[in-house]
Every structure is written in structure tokens, then in C-alpha cells.
Amino acid sequence: MAIGGDVEVLTCPRCGYSKTIPYRLGDYVGKVVDETCPNDGERLVVHAIYSSRPTEQYS
User: Is 7 contained in some domain?
Assistant: First the structure.
């Protein structure tokens, strides 16, 4: 389940490959996910989670 505007960065601990995907409820930084690296087959790790929504500016 993705939350609108929130994304996570998955990285390969072996070669450094990374990709950005929509945030999935229950994921956390450091979690080893079921997806594998296309370069070497290593399982990917959640490296970062952040919001890609623009922040509101107050005057």
C-alpha cells in the first residue's frame, strides 16, 4: 500500500545500485526487502524514506 507523495530508496549493499519506489506501509530504514539487484542478485535494503510532496509555505 503506497501513501501518496512518500517514497523510499532501495539500495544494493554489494554494488551500490539504487532505485526509488513508492513508500509501502510497514517498510523502515534498514529493512531487507524481497526485491533483488539486477546487477548481482543481492537483496535490496531500504536506505531512505522521505516525502516528495512540496512543503507549504506560510507568510
Answer: yes
Asked whether residue 31 is domain-assigned, the answer is yes
Q: Is residue 58 part of a domain?
A: no
Torsion of the alpha carbons at 38, 44, 46 and 51, rounded to the nearest 10: 20
SS3 content of the chain, % helix, strand, coil (to 5): 0, 55, 45
CA 38 to chain centre: 16
Q: Which three cell numbers stand for residue 22?
A: 513508492
Please provide the average confidence, as pLDDT, over all residues in the chain.
89
pTM of model > 0.85: no
